[in-house]
Write a structure and sequence with these properties.
four-stranded mixed β-sheet, alpha/beta, 2,3-Dihydroxybiphenyl 1,2-Dioxygenase, domain 1, 2 domains, 149 residues
Length: 149
């Protein structure tokens, strides 16, 4: 009769959920803290928490957003680095437009007059940039899409 030896699961399996219940902190780069604060607090309406020599910190509905100062020149990523799920993307885009935010248009994507694209799954997305050129988005989930839990 052969004996079986139980072994512990590989380390990566044991730790796969260790961050699942931990608070997420989002980071976005800036080259000008004052300008970033004016945008994220004054334009987007995020609750300001603190500013120090290296970052402005905001509360984005329970998620900490650290807008971190870079000393070097950087090239913003050409893709979305930060996004929000909203109840009504058209109303949100209208509100953003009213405070001077311009939606971004992307070649090859059928966006409506307001710059909103409808994904195959029904989600509706609009993109805009912060003063450093970071691409941000707002998404209204479609019927077939559910919010992350």
């Amino acid at each position: 009769m052969a004996s079986t030896v139980e072994t512990a699961p590989p380390r990566h399996v044991r730790s796969a959920t260790m961050l699942a219940s931990s608070e997420l902190v989002a980071f976005v780069p800036t080259t000008d803290l004052s300008r970033a604060r004016a945008f994220y607090e004054g334009v987007l309406g995020l609750r300001f928490v603190e500013e120090n020599p290296v970052a402005c910190v905001f509360d984005a509905d329970g998620t900490t957003l650290r807008v971190t100062l870079l000393d070097a020149v950087f090239s913003p990523a050409p893709y979305t680095v930060l996004g929000w799920v909203v109840a009504d993307v058209a109303a949100t885009v209208a509100d953003l437009t009213d405070v001077g935010v311009t939606t971004q248009r992307f070649e090859g994507m059928a966006q409506d007059d307001a710059g909103v694209w409808t994904a195959p799954g029904g989600a509706r997305v609009a993109w805009f940039k912060d003063p450093d050129g970071n691409v941000l988005s707002v998404t209204q989930l479609g019927a077939a899409t559910s919010a992350p839990s």
